[in-house]
Write a structure and sequence with these properties.
By secondary structure, the protein is an all-alpha fold. Helix content is 76%, strand content 0%.
């Protein structure tokens, strides 16, 4: 029994807001035991995907030492290499991370997520230009995937600034058309439009970003600024108007509730 639960066991149950951890585990165990799919055998593909999910979580959540203990160097399976690549990347050990990923890409060159991780590692180690080829390849292998598209767009902007902004705007516009609540994409779009000197559209994108995360005060501020420079009777101007109206109502309602 964990120390926390040892102490809480001495408390009356009616004083607890959640069941004891062991009770939750036992309830889950009973549910699994009685589940209709308990004896179902997973497919090899599902097991492979599960092992990669475990490896990625271990690499990102646990320390490098813990990851290497679970996936020692003698383990040359793809999930083990993937976990070690993430662990090395998290401590900025670029050479070892690349060694593991180079082996993975050689073994499975059609895996878009190996390409994506290599691009991410290079980007976050200050090699944005070098990362572009990997991000492009990931999209060739898995087209129209928003996360991969945003990764390519931000690499283009970081590496080529104004020159890369044109392509980045086109990519990010596709993403937000499909995912209008993607605050990350809106933020990158605001930066790309600013590089192109599109002040009103950049401020509108910032308004969309803050609107998506529920920061209505900032959304209202950016939308009001966008209206000052956007041409009237355009969809962008009307969208800024909509944000001003809705975000303004939310801000006023919250102020009334606080007072």
């Amino acid at each position: 029994m964990r120390p926390y639960e040892f102490m809480t066991r001495r408390m009356p149950p009616y004083m607890m807001t959640h069941p004891y951890s062991s009770d939750r585990v036992e309830a889950l165990r009973r549910r699994v035991e009685s589940g209709e799919n308990r004896e179902t055998v997973d497919t090899p593909d599902n097991l492979r995907r599960f092992h990669f999910m475990q490896a990625k979580l271990v690499g990102f959540i646990q320390s490098q030492g813990q990851t290497l203990a679970r996936y020692p160097l003698r383990d040359t399976s793809e999930p083990a290499r993937y976990a070690r690549a993430v662990a090395y990347y998290r401590v900025s050990d670029l050479p070892r991370a690349r060694t593991e990923l180079d082996a993975l890409i050689a073994a499975d060159p059609a895996n878009p997520y190996y390409q994506e991780l290599m691009g991410q590692i290079l980007f976050e180690n200050g090699r944005a230009e070098e990362s572009i080829a990997y991000h492009r390849r990931s999209l060739e292998l898995l087209a129209n995937q928003p996360l991969l598209q945003v990764n390519l767009a931000r690499a283009l902007v970081a590496a080529r600034e104004r020159e890369g902004a044109d392509e980045a705007v086109a990519i990010l516009s596709e993403v937000v058309a499909r995912e209008p609540d993607n605050a990350f994409a809106w933020r990158e779009l605001a930066q790309a439009r600013d590089l192109r000197g599109e002040q009103g559209l950049a401020e509108l994108a910032s308004a969309e970003q803050n609107f998506a995360i529920g920061d209505y005060s900032s959304a209202l501020n950016f939308a009001e600024r966008a209206r000052r420079t956007l041409p009237r009777n355009t969809p962008s101007y009307q969208r800024a108007n909509d944000i001003v109206t809705f975000a303004g109502n939310e801000v006023r309602d919250r102020e009334r509730r606080r007072s």
